[in-house]
Design goal:
The protein is about 40% helix and about 20% strand. Bound molecules: iron/sulfur cluster (SF4).
Length: about 160
């Protein structure tokens, strides 16, 4: 699949943090139906499911899936925020933290049990939704994300950036 850059396209990125990545699967399936139409108006600048070489700087819209469970993820999220004009939270884990954040509600004894694992895998004590750490401009809730809502947000962004 050849993806050409065009200056008048919406430059998007797609990112996944702690989650099961089902919204990425939904997005991939949507590409089957929409790729031809989208490739006329969207430049897939940082989308690892589509390309090997990705560029973070100068994104119009970053779509971010998953919750934030480590300092490294937090650092990457802040970097994405710095490099995009709009950030869209994708799926329930990104919008509300859960279900990825379910360990936040573990009872004390269970917390103690997983303590070693958290340290071993460099996890922070509490998992965060995106909004706890950065400004979120739009949300696509659902577990996985709702297709209709995603299309609505995407079309809004295309209009906002004057691409359509
Ligand atoms: S919101 Fe649901 S589908 Fe999406 S990453 Fe979280 S658990 Fe998976």
């Amino acid at each position: 699949m050849v993806i050409k850059e065009a200056t008048n396209k919406l430059k998007i990125g797609w990112f996944s943090f702690s989650c099961c990545e089902d919204s990425t699967i939904v997005f991939t399936e949507m590409l089957n139906d929409h790729f031809e139409e989208w490739s006329k108006v969207i430049y897939f600048q940082h989308v690892r499911i589509l390309r090997g070489k990705n560029k973070l700087q100068g994104l119009d819209v970053a779509f971010v899936e998953g919750a934030i469970a480590s300092n490294l993820e937090k650092k990457k999220l802040l970097e994405i925020r710095k490099n995009c004009k709009k950030l869209v939270a994708i799926g329930s884990c990104a919008c509300t933290g859960g279900p990825s954040a379910q360990r936040n509600m573990f009872p004390k004894e269970l917390e103690k049990e997983i303590e070693g694992l958290l340290r071993k895998f460099h996890q922070v004590d509490k998992v965060s939704k995106l909004e706890d750490l950065v400004r979120v401009d739009a949300k696509v809730p659902g577990c996985p994300m709702g297709e209709e809502r995603f299309l609505k947000v995407l079309n809004q962004m295309l209009e906002e950036f004057g691409v359509r």
